[in-house]
Amino acid sequence: MRATDLFDNYIFGTLSTEEKHEFETRLKTDSEFATAFEKHKTLIEGINQHEQRTHLKQILATIHKQEFGSDAKIVSIKPEETFIKKHGKTFAVAASVAVIAVISTITVLSTGGYLLKQQGNAITDLKRDVTELKYSQDAIIEGITGATNKRIKNYAPANIEGTGFALNNKGYFITSYHMVKNADSVFVTNSVLDRASAKLVASEPSLDIAIYKIDNIEAIKNIAFPFSFKENASEIGDKIFTLGYPRRDAVYGEGALSSMTGFNNDTTMYQISIPVNPGNSGGPLMDEQGNIIGVIRGKQSSAEGTGFAIKSNFIKQTIDKLENDSLKKDLALVTKKSNLKGLKRSEQIKKIQPFVFNVMVYKK
Fold first, then answer.
1. What letter would DSSP give residue 322?
2. Number of Cβ atoms within 10 Å of the Cβ of 238
3. CA distance 71 to 182
4. Can you list the alpha helix ranges (DSSP code H) found in the chain?
5. Which pTM was predicted?
6. DSSP string covering 8-62
7. Domains of the chain: residue spans and CATH
8. pLDDT (tens digit per residue) in 189-232
9. CB–CB of 318/204 below 8 Å?
10. Which are the contacts of 38, defined by CB distance < 8 A and separation ≥ 6?
11. Per-residue model confidence (pLDDT) at position 58
């Protein structure tokens, strides 16, 4: 039984003889209990007095109306102290205790794991937020080592960075829509391509897909395009790998396809056992033969090493839905035999790198 209920039962005489004896004994031996009871009793008495005053006022008002009419005014010879003014402090103490109790309960439950965090059941986007501090640190390091990097030199840092990969050798590439949404401008670069601007040509937000075209592709237009896009579904257990930009330089990751469906059993995605990090959004997911099988989408917040990728056949569906026939033709995917099949992984990566881009997103 709550202490306040016990206090009320004692005040209103609903305790048994034994319970009343125990209560009074505790009042004598427990000073904190006695103090709490006195405050509660004062509050109850105040409430009762207020109710009695209100009832008396109603009776007097009725008599006054009957004797003097409804237009006559009652003038008090003593300003009445309001109930809130008189008992406000008691109420404030009670309210403070209640608030502290609620906060304490939440803290205990959170610490004990009873309150589940929403992010534990969420998919985390893998865009990489960039800060001025990071770029300042990089500049200091370059000053010490004497190294320079033409990709960032003299440029303001982007708001967000991620990854994209080419759809062909005409300058078209794909990336994650969540990363470029509401972008003011987008630039790309990699180990062979100087910083180049890109324009949005198509998007499918429901699939988290955005397609851009690079303005200047001189550095890569004569390099043999290495990818092919797999039309058939891959299988659980297939070895897979990815290349992306969770940092300034390209990072390789490998693992296996762990499920044919993605987050919340989404059939547009694969689940993969590759540690993907902020900056991997929009990167290519490839099988051992160098076929593109998906686009990195995100990872599960509560499970490290669990990522998700949009299946490659949905890239084709997005292109097929385009109303611009000329653009649709330019975006035709290569689905023939991959030029990477049979090569060592290191050789595959050398051919892939010119067509995987660090995507830099600027927003107002």
1. -
2. 15
3. 67
4. 3-11, 17-29, 31-68, 83-112, 132-145, 177-180, 312-320, 325-330, 345-352
5. 0.62
6. HHHHTT-S-HHHHHHHHHHHHH-HHHHHHHHHHHHHHHHHHHHHHHHHHHHHHHH
7. 3-112 (no CATH), 128-362 (2.40.10.120)
8. 999 999 999 999 999 999 999 999 999 999 998 999 998 999 88
9. yes
10. none
11. 73
At residue 121, what is the residue type? N
> According to the model, what pLDDT value does residue 131 have?
46
- Cβ-contact 260, 143 below 8 angstroms: no
CA distance 93 to 353: 67
C-alpha to C-alpha distance for 350 and 335, rounded to whole angstroms: 21
Which long-range CB contacts under 8 A does 305-308 form with residues at least 24 apart? 305/255, 305/273, 305/274, 305/275, 306/258, 306/271, 306/272, 306/273, 307/271, 307/272, 307/273, 307/274, 307/275, 307/276, 307/280, 308/123, 308/262, 308/263, 308/266, 308/269, 308/270, 308/271, 308/272
- Hey, is 104 helix, strand or coil? helix
C-alpha to C-alpha distances, 284 to 83, 152, 169, 175, 291, nearest whole angstrom = 71, 23, 16, 9, 10
DSSP state of 119: G
d(CA 158, CA 153): 13
Which of 168, 163, 165, 175 has the alpha carbon at shortest distance from 331? Answer: 168
Q: Scanning the structure block, which residue is given the tokens 């427990």?
A: 30
Reply yes or no on whether the pLDDT at 167 is more than 60: yes
75 forms beta bridges with none
Q: Which of 81-95, 316-330, 332-346 has the lowest mean pLDDT?
A: 81-95
